[in-house]
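Researcher: Go.
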Amino acid sequence: MRWGLALLALLAPSLGWASPTDTCVQVRTDVADAEQLKKLVTVELDRHSTHKAVESNCLSYLRVELIEVAGVRYVTGRINTQVPHRERVEGDDLAAAVEETLAVLLHNDPVRLRGPRQQSWLRRQFATLRSGRTGFGLEAYQLVALDGDGGIESLPGLALHVRREVADWQIEAQLAVGLRIDEPRGRALTGHGGLKVGVRWYFGQGDTAFYLGTLAGLELQRFEGPSAIDGAPKSFSAIGFALGPRVGVELLRTARARLDLFGQVMLPAFTATDEDEGVVDGWFPTASLGVGAVF
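Model: Structure:
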């Protein structure tokens, strides 16, 4: 029996049975009684098995502020030094706004995510992902492609992406499609798309933060042009692996909906070579500038 209890004690941290993180609560408001707001936040905090409200010897610090702007109330919270999260109070339902704010903040507490010191870096990252926040986004961009002959191709595109964000980094998956909207003259890039995954690192913890990332995955390039054999119009598609960097700035990070301004470059690991009709033969790296909304 004693051996069984000892084994359970050793396995408890890895199974998620670690004791709750002692957390001090600070509130600030000019539109309601501060003590009542603190009681509401404390009760909601204690509902989470990962944290416990205390008055001293704190491992984490939770700060919650209730403000009113133009007749609309907002709850803004921050756990330690992480990015603040803001929720609008719908009607008189202050409890719902506090509940949503704490759900986001406590799942991204770096003290909790860091875990025991003996954990490996990789294990800590997987633990972080399980507690992260999922977001979805829509992007509009303008793509420019260069080939070895000095030609320039440009076409607009749209991209959908899903991401998992934790602390100051995230992973994402992206599906992008670009189509030429004007009539091509001669050989032209008429379609471009890709399915890629990537990682971003954010620099800054305020409402605005710059980021640096990378994308990698499958890329499709479609061309139309005259055949080198008989001059008849033909089409050719090439698909292969591509990767490249992405840089940008994310705005409104304390709100539910965010704005993303970005630029990225993709370097294909293949050439578009039409051996049958000779429509195209070249290497086409691409560059994009765009804007996106994240929810």
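Model: The CA atoms of residues 24 and 61 lie 5 Å apart.
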